[in-house]
């Protein structure tokens, strides 16, 4: 029995899919104690958009550490925080004409969601929240109440209150007018559902199975919230920081949410950091009403500032666009033809290979396991974990991106052949 199995809690999860002991990482590559090398299409569940040990960001962190910069500062004024706020304003908010105040909460995505939900309820004086089927917003009780996955909800050990789940425009609900339905719920005096303080949504349900919200749908959702005096919260924790192309995934719809939550890659280096963005008129917090010992992660501020600079210096958005074109073309031309049971969806460098239509219920697990055997790390998401998710660092080289996609193709083809499921003649 390894020291991990002997001492670490059974709650551990990713190590069960990726059982090697990892010792080193660089760019889009992971290196194991066994000598094996892996291409990383997982990127720390979205926390490593800028790759492992990005040289530019690392140099700024090392420089800060060697200068004996403040390592822990709660919410005190520090030079590291000042630099981040200035850079975030100049490079992200002002060019997009966004007027948000920044709240530094606990350094996890779930805490940013907790802060947004608490503030929405405080502002509107209502306890209810609308979320969506397929949503994932975190694992602490408040954010978990807005998460739809029954497996995760059951672990709460208590009732999860004050959240109503609305249909999301995907799967069997794709042709259903979900916005009209929500409007009817809000206007029907016999719907049995009270008006919520806020509606929280993801523009792409990443953990939910790469379900993309249509642009018109998001625009109608924004209008509905305005008309009914409901705050709109956009969860950018996994799909923000350039993952779908632009820095914010909601930009493609031309909307402005009332609150935005960011975490994962906002620190640029995989360091714990989360922020809640709020329109100035919503900032009715009293001092300390929402706090946390590590809301002042100074190294994360340094990394975040460097990451924003890196994005500008290396035209990261344009790079993502080019790589997205390659991935889209490869998946449609090389993966989809392997079986009529495969569906492809995604954008930017966030893609899903949906095999839920397959009669072989373990096919997604077999594909992911075979990818790992061949040196590619990726995860499964969505209902019954039937969607293979591709989420490489945005900085991945084209050579490594092509190699990873080729491994995926081999794994998909081999697993469908072994399953005996009928495939297209192109194989």
TrEMBL record:
It is an enzyme of class 2 (transferase). Keywords: Aminotransferase, Pyridoxal phosphate, Transferase. It comes from the Bacteria. Its EC number is 2.6.1.76. Pfam families: Aminotran_3 (PF00202). Its cofactor is pyridoxal 5'-phosphate. Gene3D superfamilies: Aspartate Aminotransferase, domain 1 (3.90.1150.10), Type I PLP-dependent aspartate aminotransferase-like (Major domain) (3.40.640.10). One of its GO terms (molecular function) is diaminobutyrate-2-oxoglutarate transaminase activity. InterPro entries: Aminotrans_3, Aminotrans_3_PPA_site, Dat, Ectoine_EctB, PyrdxlP-dep_Trfase, PyrdxlP-dep_Trfase_major, PyrdxlP-dep_Trfase_small. Belongs to the class-III pyridoxal-phosphate-dependent aminotransferase family. This is Diaminobutyrate--2-oxoglutarate transaminase. It comes from Paenibacillus phytorum.
């Amino acid at each position: 029995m390894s020291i991990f199995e002997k001492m670490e809690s059974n709650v551990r999860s990713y190590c069960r899919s990726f059982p090697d002991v990892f010792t080193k990482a660089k760019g889009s590559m992971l290196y194991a104690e066994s000598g094996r090398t892996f291409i990383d299409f997982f990127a720390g569940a979205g926390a490593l958009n800028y790759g492992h040990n990005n040289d530019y960001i690392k140099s700024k962190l090392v420089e800060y550490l060697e200068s004996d910069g403040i390592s822990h500062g709660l919410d005190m004024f520090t030079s590291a925080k000042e630099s981040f706020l200035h850079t975030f304003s100049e490079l992200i908010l002002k060019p997009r004409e966004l007027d948000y105040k920044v709240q530094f909460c606990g350094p996890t995505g779930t805490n940013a969601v907790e802060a947004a939900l608490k503030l929405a309820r405080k502002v509107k004086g209502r306890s209810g929240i609308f979320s969506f089927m397929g949503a994932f917003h975190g694992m602490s009780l408040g954010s978990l109440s807005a998460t739809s996955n029954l497996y995760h909800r059951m672990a709460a050990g208590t009732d999860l209150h004050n959240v109503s789940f609305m249909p999301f425009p995907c799967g069997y609900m794709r042709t259903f007018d979900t916005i009209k339905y929500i409007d009817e719920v809000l206007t029907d005096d016999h719907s049995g559902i009270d008006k919520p303080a806020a509606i929280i949504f993801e523009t792409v349900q990443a953990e939910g199975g790469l379900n993309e919200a249509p642009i018109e749908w998001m625009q109608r959702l924004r209008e509905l919230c305005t008309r009914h005096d409901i705050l709109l919260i956009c969860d950018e924790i996994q799909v923000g920081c350039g993952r779908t192309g632009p820095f914010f995934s909601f930009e493609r719809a031309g909307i402005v949410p009332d609150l935005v939550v960011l975490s994962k890659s906002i620190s640029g280096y995989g360091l714990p950091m989360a922020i809640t963005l709020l329109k100035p008129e919503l900032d009715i917090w009293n001092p300390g009403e929402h706090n946390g010992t590590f809301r002042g992660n100074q190294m994360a501020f340094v990394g975040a500032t460097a990451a924003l600079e890196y994005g500008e210096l290396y035209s990261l958005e344009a790079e993502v666009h080019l790589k997205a074109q390659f991935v889209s073309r490869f998946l449609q031309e090389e993966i989809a033809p392997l079986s009529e049971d495969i569906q492809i969806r995604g954008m930017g460098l966030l893609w899903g290979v949906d095999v839920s239509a397959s009669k072989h219920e373990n096919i997604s697990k077999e594909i992911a396991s075979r990818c790992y055997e061949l040196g590619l790390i990726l995860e499964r998401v969505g209902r019954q974990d039937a969607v293979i998710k591709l989420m490489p660092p945005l900085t991945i080289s084209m050579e490594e991106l092509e190699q990873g996609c080729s491994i995926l193709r081999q794994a998909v083809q081999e697993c469908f052949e072994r399953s005996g499921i009928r495939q297209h003649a192109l194989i």
